[in-house]
Design brief:
The chain is 35% helix and 24% strand. It is an alpha+beta fold. The strands form 2 sheets. The protein has a 4-stranded antiparallel β-sheet, with helices on one face. It has a 3-stranded antiparallel β-sheet with strand order 5-7-6. Strand 6 and strand 7 form a beta hairpin. The radius of gyration is 12 Å and the shape is globular.
Length: 99
C-alpha cells in the first residue's frame, strides 16, 4: 500500500482510498495513478506515461492522456481546478506529489 497525503493506493487489490473512502477507478485510471505513485515526485513525460499505461504503440496521443488525467483529478483532488496531487509540467508531462 502506497500512501501519499490522504491517498492510499493498494497495488495488490487495485484499490484507491481517498480520505478513507473507496474511490472507483477504471483500469487505465488505476494504472496511471500506480505509475505516478511509484515515481512520486518525478516528472514523467507524456510519451513515457502513454507507453507504460497503454502500450508501446502509444506515444503521441496526448489528448488521450489529458482526458484520463482530468478524470483522475476529479476523483482524487479536493479541488480539481487547483490540483495539489497531480501536477502538470506544461509541454512535458505530469508528476504526483504529496501536498
Amino acid at each position: 500500500v502506497l500512501r501519499i497525503g490522504e491517498l492510499e493506493i493498494d497495488l495488490e487489490k487495485h484499490e484507491l482510498r481517498a480520505n478513507g473512502k473507496r474511490v472507483h477507478l477504471t483500469p487505465h485510471q488505476f494504472e496511471l495513478l500506480r505509475l505516478l505513485a511509484l515515481n512520486e515526485g518525478k516528472l514523467l513525460t507524456h510519451r513515457a506515461i502513454l507507453q507504460e499505461v497503454w502500450g508501446p504503440r502509444y506515444g503521441t496521443e496526448s489528448n488521450l492522456l489529458h482526458v484520463h488525467v482530468s478524470q483522475l483529478r476529479r476523483k482524487i483532488e479536493p479541488d480539481p481546478a487547483r490540483p495539489r496531487y497531480l501536477l502538470t509540467a506544461p509541454g512535458a508531462g505530469y508528476r504526483l506529489v504529496e501536498p
